[in-house]
Design goal:
The chain has 179 residues and is mostly beta strands. 6% of the residues lie in helices and 41% in strands. It is built from two helices and 13 strands, in the order E-E-E-E-E-E-E-E-E-E-E-E-E-H-H. The chain is globular, with a radius of gyration of 16 Å.
Length: 179
């Protein structure tokens, strides 16, 4: 499947996070109600990735348990990848990516119906997620990060770190049965 530009995916968007420096450091707003999402967020989560060259994903929840995410980097940086799993979408099974880091202050809004993952580019990267639905382990799936049917072009590095959960992800034909 082709990699598409961010603006080709309906509902996916980048927002700038204003940062206000001071002599003591800085102040930044992670979320306010001007982010027109249409639903309330349910949960805030933090992920800390210890090692650079870590691949996480591609995770999603299905059906009524699907989650929208607002992804913000508090420290370090990632290349964020997302795969459109919405069957009625013109970008169904296509993927996109965007670089998020603590210097560009971009936040990524991913609507329901996408698998999500990332490549950490820095040591001790801290990622903030706002989610609009609770975690449901019975409805969580992992699309194999290296599935050839999707063909994500991950950065090539030595000593890549990947969890056993992500190494055991399902291939695309198995995932399509879950949609």
């Amino acid at each position: 499947m082709p990699q598409r530009r961010l603006n080709e995916f309906s509902g996916v968007s980048i927002m700038k996070r204003d940062t206000f420096p001071s002599e003591l450091g800085s102040f930044s707003v992670l979320f306010d109600q001007s982010i027109n999402f249409g639903e309330d967020f349910y949960q805030d989560s933090i992920s800390i990735i210890k090692h650079p060259n870590t691949i996480k994903g591609m995770h999603f929840q299905s059906g009524h348990f699907a989650q929208a995410k607002l992804v913000t980097i508090l420290q370090g940086g990632i290349i964020d990848f997302f795969v459109d799993l919405r069957k009625d979408s013109s970008t169904f099974l296509d993927y996109g990516s965007v670089e998020l880091n603590s210097k560009n202050n971009d936040m990524l809004l991913i609507p329901k119906g996408f698998a999500h993952g990332y490549f950490s580019a820095h040591e001790n990267t801290i990622i903030s997620y706002k989610l609009d639905a609770p975690y449901s382990p019975d409805h969580e799936y992992t699309l194999l990060w290296s599935d050839p049917g999707i063909g994500i072009k991950w950065p090539t590095t030595k000593n890549t770190h990947i969890s056993s959960k992500d190494r055991a992800g399902l291939n695309l034909p198995e995932i399509e049965k879950k949609l």
